[in-house]
UniProtKB/TrEMBL annotation:
<dbReference type="InterPro" id="IPR001986">
    <property type="entry name" value="Enolpyruvate_Tfrase_dom"/>
</dbReference>
<keyword id="KW-0808">Transferase</keyword>
<dbReference type="InterPro" id="IPR006264">
    <property type="entry name" value="EPSP_synthase"/>
</dbReference>
<feature type="binding site">
    <location>
        <position position="311"/>
    </location>
    <ligand>
        <name>3-phosphoshikimate</name>
    </ligand>
</feature>
<feature type="binding site">
    <location>
        <position position="91"/>
    </location>
    <ligand>
        <name>phosphoenolpyruvate</name>
    </ligand>
</feature>
<feature type="domain" description="Enolpyruvate transferase">
    <location>
        <begin position="8"/>
        <end position="421"/>
    </location>
</feature>
<feature type="active site" description="Proton acceptor">
    <location>
        <position position="311"/>
    </location>
</feature>
<comment type="similarity">
    <text>Belongs to the EPSP synthase family.</text>
</comment>
<dbReference type="InterPro" id="IPR023193">
    <property type="entry name" value="EPSP_synthase_CS"/>
</dbReference>
<keyword id="KW-0028">Amino-acid biosynthesis</keyword>
<comment type="subunit">
    <text>Monomer.</text>
</comment>
<feature type="binding site">
    <location>
        <position position="342"/>
    </location>
    <ligand>
        <name>phosphoenolpyruvate</name>
    </ligand>
</feature>
<feature type="binding site">
    <location>
        <position position="165"/>
    </location>
    <ligand>
        <name>3-phosphoshikimate</name>
    </ligand>
</feature>
<feature type="binding site">
    <location>
        <position position="24"/>
    </location>
    <ligand>
        <name>3-phosphoshikimate</name>
    </ligand>
</feature>
<comment type="function">
    <text>Catalyzes the transfer of the enolpyruvyl moiety of phosphoenolpyruvate (PEP) to the 5-hydroxyl of shikimate-3-phosphate (S3P) to produce enolpyruvyl shikimate-3-phosphate and inorganic phosphate.</text>
</comment>
<feature type="binding site">
    <location>
        <position position="386"/>
    </location>
    <ligand>
        <name>phosphoenolpyruvate</name>
    </ligand>
</feature>
<dbReference type="GO" id="GO:0005737">
    <property type="term" value="C:cytoplasm"/>
</dbReference>
């Protein structure tokens, strides 16, 4: 990263395709008999896990020059896999497929890497069990996940946590259940599953915080366009806002309201941000331009905005440190159950730059940085892509050539991150 220090970052860029949308496109195309295409997908470790698993179920998936072609024999004709299904680091693959495999009535065992091995899966097996799915977990909570065929009945489910992964798993299972599946959320989580199911011809009703879906519907093949991932754009947005002279235009990025909470935060902080929606059919898409700002204020985030920016909180902690007064995050306990305990990782690692935090069980207060003073140059990335990229953004803004133990997990969501930064850098 040394080559990136003491530069400004300017120009226009497209970030890789949205991770959540790519996973869903691979799964839904695999349910639809015939050929679907996925344009500008995310090609990363996490999405490879999903496409490999769909291939193991008998779907043909090819990828040529940024276009994936999926040919499926149809949901009824997917086959029992011969081997264990390996989900790597991907919580979305693991959780969504629990619902899908239970619905398909396929005998399968899923397991992932050491991070997946300690992430709670009972939040998904609980409601699926109520539907009649036969799922067993290690210690009742963790992978490996063993799924056996079972007849499913629709349920009406009140979500105890805001989780699009849990909601999506129930909806996938609901496609194959007898009756109408109803999910009520307390706070709206990302709605890509609902939007894409409609696109694939499913009759699904969304009314406020309630989603309803009748079982027994089949999906029709479609051509899906994947917008850029705002969660990847977030790192460039924060870098532009806090490094002198920077001005970055991010093109064709998802502006889905259930994901775009970071834009509200930039506005709350008086950051220099311009947003132009270019299309609002299905998934909203547009351009985001962020320029360096001398006068960032602060943010206070809690309640229903949290699911709209859950993955951006690590890098927002960096932004908060460049504000003029303390910034606050509350109601974000879910961060403790991500690829790593992200509240711990954010506080432990950013503290090494001299940033002061007050920690809560469900968030933190981040104080404005007064003096950048490295107390330790050895940083831990916890094999967590978003923690590693957060550290790189902070290191660049601080002008410090920090040492991160193992940055390889960047490839989980944004394999070309460092190359994109090289492309944007300019002498200052
Ligand atoms: C995701 C949902 C979120 C998010 C994750 C991707 C999805 O998790 O943190 O990166 O694609 O559904 P939860 O739904 O568990 O909050």
């Amino acid at each position: 990263m040394k080559s990136l220090l003491n530069h400004k970052f300017t120009g226009s860029i497209k970030v890789p395709g949205d991770k959540s949308i790519t996973h869903r496109a691979l799964m839904m195309s695999s349910l639809a008999e015939g050929t679907s295409t996925i344009k500008s997908p995310l090609e990363s470790d996490d999405t490879f896990r999903t496409s490999e698993i769909m291939s193991q179920l008998g779907v043909s998936i090819t990828n040529e020059a940024g276009m994936i072609t999926v040919t499926s024999p149809g949901a009824e004709n997917l086959k029992t896999p011969g081997d264990i299904l390996y989900t790597g680091n991907s919580g979305t693959t693991t959780r969504l497929l629990m619902g899908l495999l239970a619905g398909l009535g396929i005998n399968a065992t899923m397991e992932g890497d050491s991070s997946i091995a300690i992430r709670p899966m009972d939040r998904v097996s609980g409601p699926l069990g109520e539907m009649g799915a036969d799922i067993s977990l290690k210690d009742g909570k963790y992978p490996p996940i063993k799924i056996k065929p079972g007849m499913l009945n629709a349920i009406e489910y009140n979500m105890p946590v805001a989780s699009a992964q849990v909601k999506s798993a129930i909806l996938f299972a609901g496609l194959f259940a007898d009756g109408e599946t109803i999910v009520h959320e307390q706070f709206k989580s990302r709605d890509h599953t609902e939007t894409m199911l409609k696109q694939f011809g499913v009759d699904i009703m969304v009314e406020g915080l309630t989603v309803k879906l009748q079982g027994g519907q089949s999906l029709k093949p479609r051509d899906v366009l994947v917008p850029g991932d705002i969660s990847s754009a977030a790192f460039l947005m924060v870098l532009a806002a806090i490094t002198e002279g920077s001005d970055i235009l991010i093109e064709d990025v998802s502006l889905n309201e259930t994901r775009a909470g970071i834009i509200d935060v930039f506005r709350q902080m008086n950051a220099d941000i311009e947003v132009n929606k270019t299309s609002s059919e299905g998934e909203a898409i547009g351009n985001i331009r962020v320029k360096h700002s001398e006068n960032l204020s602060s943010f206070e985030l809690s309640g229903d905005i949290i699911p709209r920016l859950i993955d951006e909180i690590p890098v927002l902690a960096v932004l908060g440190a460049f504000g003029s007064s303390p910034s606050v995050i509350k109601d974000a306990k879910e961060l403790r159950f991500k690829e790593t305990d992200r509240l711990r990782a954010v506080i432990d690692e950013l503290s090494k730059f001299g940033i002061r935090f007050e920690e809560f069980d469900d968030g933190f207060i981040v104080h404005p940085i007064t003096e950048i003073k490295l107390t330790d140059n050895d940083f831990k990335g916890y094999h967590d892509h978003r923690i590693i990229m957060m550290l790189l953004v902070m290191g660049i803004a601080a002008g410090k050539d920090i040492n991160i133990d193992d940055p390889s997990a960047i490839s989980v969501s944004y394999p070309g991150f460092l190359e994109d930064l090289e492309q944007l850098k300019q002498a200052r």
